[in-house]
Amino acid sequence: xxxxxxxxxxxxxxxxxxxxxxxxxxxxxxxxxxxxxxxxxxxxxxxxxxxxxxxxxxxxxxxxxxxxxxxxxxxxxxxx
Length: 80
Fold this sequence. Notes:
Layout: E1 7-11, E2 16-24, E3 34-38, H1 61-78
Antiparallel strand pairs: 1-2, 2-3
């Protein structure tokens, strides 16, 4: 799954189905990390991923592994 693609998720904070996706955190730091974003822009927990928001990076564990592998390969290639 692409980081841009969304997936459906039942959100207990808003008691409805939302679309979530993995995206880079805001800022210019190359090591700024990722957040899980939902399509509920009015939600008070949007982009925070802190309780009681049920969103967390574990929902995208496979994608995070792929990102880490690509980063590792890129760094190894650049250090040759």
